[in-house]
Every structure is written in C-alpha cells, then in structure tokens.
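Quick illustration, no need to memorize.
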Amino acid sequence: MAAHPRTTRTAAASGRHPRTSPHPAGPAATPDASPGPAATPAPPGTCAGPVTTPAPTDASPGPAATPAPPGTCAGPAAAPAPTDASPGPVTIPAPPGTSAGPAAAPAPPRRRSPQAQGRLPDLIARAVHEALAAHDGDMRPAIAELQRRAIPDAMALLDACRIGARYDIVGHPPLPDILRKKSAHGADDVWEARPHWTRPDPPAGTHEVTALDINGAYLSALKTHLPLGALEHSTGNVHSRRRAGIHLITPPDWDHHAHLPNPLGNRDEPGPVWVTEPTLRLLQRLATDAYGPLCDPPVIHESWTSGSTEQLFEKFRQILRDAREKAIAEDDEVTLEYVKSMYSKFVSTMGESNFNREIYRPDWMHIIRSQAFVNLWLKAHKAHTAGLTVMRVLGTDELHIAGDWRTVFTEGRGVSQVKVKDVYDLQTGAR
C-alpha cells in the first residue's frame, strides 16, 4: 500500500468526487450541509425561460444542469457545465420573447449507498497475506516487514476509509509558535498532562496490588475533538464546545493528591500553562456538581482553536479496532503486531517525523496523547469512587489498584477491557 505525498489530503487525491471540508482553515464547521439539487429539463414541447442552476454550497458542489430533450425550444449555445470548483450560478438565457416553463422539481440529494460504503477492501489482511507469502510463512520476518511499512500503510488505509467523508484532512496548516520546537532536540510549549503518580500515604498493612494494563490506549484516543483547519487565535476566558485546540490556562488548585493524581500530571512549575483540548475539558468537567466538584474551573487566557469534530479518524479507528479484535480471536500474532504498529506509529509521527511527510499536525499529536492520559485518569477515578485503593497511575496505560478490581473493570483484551500486567504485595507500616 503506497501513500501519495501531498500538502493537503483532499478527496481529489483518491480519484473520487470531492466533498470539501466546510471552512477547513477557519471557524466551526457547518455540520449538516448537503449537495445542491440538480435542475431537471422542461417537458417536451415547452419553451424554457431563464434557468438558474443553484450555486454549490461550501460543503459540496451541486451537479451541472442537464440539457433539454429534443423538441423543446432551443436557446443560445449552452454555457459549459460548472466544474466542481465553480463558485457561482450558471444562467442559460432563453430566446427573446419566450415565456418561462414550469418550475423545475428539485432532485433528492445524492448519497452514497450502504453497499458502496461497504466496498472498502481489506487492506490489512491483504498486506499480512503478502508479507507471509514473501517470507514463506515465517512469522518473525513477516512481522518485521509489516512494522517497517506500518506508517505508509496506515496513511493508505486512512485514504481508503475516508472516501466519501464529510471533512478533508488539512495535513500542513500554518502553525502558531507555541507548537514549534525551541531547538532541534527540544520541545514545544504544549503540556500533555502525562501522569506519573504514586499514592503518597497508602493505608497501613499488606495489600495485594494488581497492575492493570489499558488495552489499545492510543487506538481509543483517536476518538477525540480535533481541530479541522488552521488554528485561530482568541483571548479571554471563553470556551466553545464546537471548537478545539490549545489553551493557555491558569490551572485550579488540586487538593486530592493523597488518593488521586492531579489531572494536570506532574507539573511543578506554577503559573499559566498551554494545555490541550482534552485536558481543558476534563478540568471543566471536574468543576461540575457531578464530580463534587473536585476543583474550581480553570481560567482561560488565550486559545488557538478551529472548528472541530470527533469523527475525523472514526472510520480509521473502527477498522483498526475490528482488525485487532479479529486477530485476537484467531490468535493471529502477525496481524495483531501489524495493527498495533499502525496506530501507535501513526500517532507518534503525525507531529514531526521524517517517516511521515503527509501529515504535520503537532496539535493533533498532543491532543490524541492527552486524550489517552485523560482516559486513564477517568479509570482511576472510577476505581476510587467504587471504593478501591488507587496505588499508582503511570504513563499512557498503567493503573495499579488494591482491592477487588473485577467488580469495576472487565478482564480481557478488548479496547474496553483491561488485562493484568503484574500482581505484587505491598506492605506499609502505620502512619
């Protein structure tokens, strides 16, 4: 599966009818735009008056007007049918002295049939079959080959599963300075809120602690609010739920460090900090009555945002999830390792990488990672509210719990389940 390099990932690159993104680099996208109706010809034997083809909307262009059938009054030479990029209406004048015919009945909007949507080839199974055939069924070299080609294959799969999608992928928008690295090996200004917390004062006694592993953390995190186009700057303590991006906030005080990690992660430096959309939304959520509240709302000073959607990578995520579940059910280690490499490398290289030149979206990379950390924090909170003792919360997918965790979580290898990574005894003295 070869990927085609480009600056903006558009529908035209895959040879399909374009469906352009509403405001790809501007404010919030219009969610319910639909193709314009096609003008139908007047009945035979009538003379058509001026006919205006409706202008295409900014979400998807309407089809060109069809010519009148034989026997109708002929007007001057018809103007060429508007292309997909035609910005305005096309008017075909009628001969002088003629009268207008009946009003044209609008045609229903064109939609892709479910059969057409289900024709996506199984690119993952095909790649696995080819790799195994090339190495005479030897799994180790086949896995190594598939892991080497995971990034271009993931981009090709993304192209295929986004045929007919509502939004285009803007792969190389202009970026604010906060998303640019300060040095070749340095970091930008965005704080992802990665947790690294150990309970400072566990209950006295001997505890059996289970280290749980959260399955497919980055795969699940692909479902998050992502800005569609170029980020736009704003100031003030205002947040729109229809936009997403990066925010400069003064975080609230956290008074629950004894039994729950700070949602902002291990940050020692005081003062305002640039955080991602998932972190901001979690802090706002924890400031509501449904959570106690556990903290005050964060104060927003500046924002870089764009119109957003949770659906940008949804089909891509579902295909990878289904392939993962099938591989687990069939004990297919080759496909499982291949899928894992596809989604993990996809996330890690979309920020800045010589291995993926098709997408340069450090904002997306930070947001997806932060969403994985938010998902882990919410699982720790779920365990705590169920009466379990949270001992450690680490990284992207590691949760250490004392108590009967099976009353809260389901053991398994699915993305909504957890698996046991380790079990150990922890002995603590009286405090």
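The first strand starts at residue 51 and ends at 53.
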